[in-house]
Amino acid sequence: MLNFKVNEGLCIRCGKCITDCPTMCISMLEGDFPVILDENNCMRCQHCLAVCPTGAISIMGVDPADSIELQYELPTAHSMETLIKGRRSIRKYKNNALDKKIITKLLETASHAPTGVNAQGVLFTVTTTTEATEELRKEIYENVSRLLKTADYDKDDLRFQYMNMAHSAYTNHDVDVILRGAPHILIASAPKAIPLPKEDCVIALSTFELFAQTMGIGTLWDGMLQWCMEDFFPELAVKLGVPEDHKIGYCMIFGHPAVQYARTVQRKPGSLNLVDSF
Ligand SMILES: Cc1cc2nc3c(=O)[nH]c(=O)nc-3n(C[C@H](O)[C@H](O)[C@H](O)COP(=O)(O)O)c2cc1C
Asked: Is 163 helix (H, G, I), strand (E, B) or coil?
C-alpha cells in the first residue's frame, strides 16, 4: 500500500509531481487532485513528495514536514572540490573507537545514496568497538596463516602474494597491513537478487567516505579485507552477520586518522572524451 495522500488545502495543482514522476504513474483529472491509479508502477522514490512546492504530498506514511528543506545551506562548489581532492586513503589510525551515535549518523546518511531502481538494499555491517575489531583482526590473521600453509595456490595470483606479504608483516614486525590498525571495519553488501548490488554498495561507500571526511574521520577502501571476506574466508562475513544471499560490494576501514595532510595531491589530468558532434 502506497498511502499516497494529497493535502487538498495545500495542493495548488501545479502538476510538478506528475511531470517529475520517473514512472509516470501520477495523473490528475481536470479540476481534481493528483492520484496514483496503478500503484505497481511506483518506484517509491518519493520524488512527488520532494518536488511539491507546498508540501502537500505524503506517500508511504512519510510526512513532508520531516524532510530537510533544500533552500538552505548546501556545500559550495569550492568546498566540494576541496573535499573531493583533499580526501586521502588513511592507513594510520588512533586507537579509540568512534561514538556509536556518530557511526550511526554516518551510515544512515550514506544510506541516502542512490540505488538502481531505488532498491535500497544496501546493508552496512560495521564493528562498533575496538574489541570486536581486534577479535576479527586476530581471526583474519589466523585464517591467513592457515590459508598460506594449506591452500594449493597459484604463485602468480596477486591476492596470495599480498596475503603472504601481510602475514609476514604481521608475524615478523607486528604491522597490520590488512586492517591497518583501524578501530572499525565496514562491509557494504546487498541482496544478490536486486538489480545492481555491487554498484549500489560502491556508491553507498563513496558517499560514506566523503561524509566521514567532513567530520574528520578517515577511511580506506580495503581490497585486502575484501579478498578476505569475499574470496578466502566468507564464513567470517557470515559470522559478522552478512546474509549468505548477499553480494559483498566492498569493504572499508575507518576511524580517527593518526595522520593529517596539509594539501591535496596533484593527479595527472583526467581522461576526458569530449564529444561535440555525433
Ligand atoms: C577499490 C580500492 C581498493 C583499495 N585497496 C587498498 C588496500 O587493500 N590497501 C591499501 O592500503 N589501499 C587500498 N586502496 C587505496 C588506494 O591505494 C588509494 O586510493 C590510491 O593509492 C590513491 O590514494 P588516495 O586514496 O589517498 O588518493 C584501495 C583503493 C580502492 C579504490
From this structure: helix
